[in-house]
Each structure stands twice: as structure tokens, then as C-alpha cells.
Amino acid sequence: MANAWKKDRSNKITTPKTLLFLFSTSVILLTFFYLSSHPTTSSNPNPTIKTLAYPPNSLIQPFDCHKSPQSHPIIANLVEGVKYPFLYSLSDFGTLPDKPHKNIVRILKGKLFRRPDISVTVQELLEKMKSEGKMGIFVDVGANVGMATFAAAVMGFRVFAFEPVFENLQSICNGIYFNRVGDLVNVFEAATSDHVGNITFHKLVGRLDNSAVSATGAKMAFKSNEEVELQVRSIPLDEVIPENEHVLLLKIDVQGWEYHVLKGAKKLLSRKNGEAPYLIYEEDERLLQASNSSSNEIRKFLNGLGYTHCVQKGTDAHCTK
Q: Would you say which domain of life the source belongs to (predicted)?
């Protein structure tokens, strides 16, 4: 920014960089004023971020948003077209100032963030379960910036969210505060898999939502992006979800690593009919093959656990017992 004010050039307040700065500042101020005067429809009136109680001898503890560096700038907005409104913030801004993220463009046009299909699906399923008297937790594997997590939390459901990308975790922490759901959301800094340890993770700069365990899977749709290889913690869901917790809904979106996640949740998925979770997982054959698995292998595994009813909806599979 300092280079824009050199003495040997005229001061232009309408340069792309200056406009971007003014835009970012305006978004933060508007978000602050909105939240000050319009509390969201959550069962939690307390804006403080809390860490839910978790056994101290567990293999992993929830991510502590208080100890995490604050992301900045923050660009957040409400989501359009959902029955239970919520906000989330972006972890990627696109290529600025030339090719900003599509939701930044929407803000400049006076629009809300585009509605994620998974947010609508989660709210519809949980609303139906709630009307039937069913209550329990929602498990969000591959939480990204919380588009499914907050869709459930603002309805009053407790959530266990798993996300290994630090920038996405920062956005989830923002959303926990924005939506006033600190007493409902446990977020874990980990990739879920079929073993405890560490795995190599491939993060795409500029497309954090497409990061994955498989390098091929991560870059399949965005081959031109810069890739960063890092080690992240891996843990099976069966090591985290208490046996006495009733899991209503399990959503998995991990860019082809779904089979490994499912194998690590065998005990959870083996619960009897009525206690086993409704399952949604991404079933993209290209991504699965990039991680040395296949949709047939997954269906056979699930069938052996009693999940005999699976329906394909877009690239997602919905399975029940």
C-alpha cells in the first residue's frame, strides 16, 4: 500500500488496491454493526467462544479458538436461501484485485453469499429428524469454513467438526463467534482416517477448499495452483466420538479420502438401526481412484455394516440402514 503514495506519482484513491482496502474495511464494519443489532437465530445467546468439555485423556482435544491467531481481514456475510440463517467467513479471497472470490463479487453487487447445497441438505434432514423427536449430534468431516457446521448449529444441534487446514480453522472460529454457537461446536484440527498418526496433506494456495490427502485429487480440478505439502494429524472417528453420543447425521467431504474415513468409523457405523447415523459422503469416482479406492469398494464396505439403502444425489451418496 505504501508504494501507492510515493511523491513522484499522483495520489489516486480509486486504484484497485485502494478500493480493495476500503472494501475490506467496510465489510468488517458492516459485519460488526450487523451482529451488534441483529442476533442470529441460534439457541445460544452468549457470544463468547467456549470449548465444550471433553475427556482430558482423549487422544485429541478440541481446537482452541482463543489461542489461535486472528485471521485478517475478515470477509463474512449471511448465506442466501436457507431457512435458518447463518454467517460464515472466507478463507480464500481469490486472486486480488483482478479475480476476486465469487462471493466477494456478490457482496460488491449487494448480494448475500451463494447458498451451498450441503447447507440446505443438512438443515432439511435435521429439521425432519427433530420433528420426529430425534436429537443428537452432527459430525462434519471436511468442515472447510463451516458451511454445514453452522447450518446445523444455528438450529440448536451440537456439532463435531473436523478440519486440518489452519486457514479454514480460523474461519470456523470466526463463524463460531458470528453465529453465537460457542457452546454447540467442537472443532478438531485433524484429518480423519483409519489410523492414528500423521499423514501427508496437500494444500492448494488460493483454493483451500480443494485441499486433500491425495496430491492428484487436490489438483485434479485446479492443476495450475501452487501446492504446499505438509504433515497433519490423522485420527479415526471411533477414537473421538464417545460411544454414548447419539450421532444423527454424518457428513464426509474429503476429496477422495472417504473410504479411509469410513473405515475409521466402523464402530460408529456398526450401531444398530435407529442408532446408526444417516450418512452423506462425496462419491466422486475420479477423486476416489486418486486415493486408491472406488465407489464399489465403499458400497461393499457399507453393505457389510448394514447400510443397504444408498441413493446418489449429484456427487453425494445418501445412505441409511
A: Eukaryota
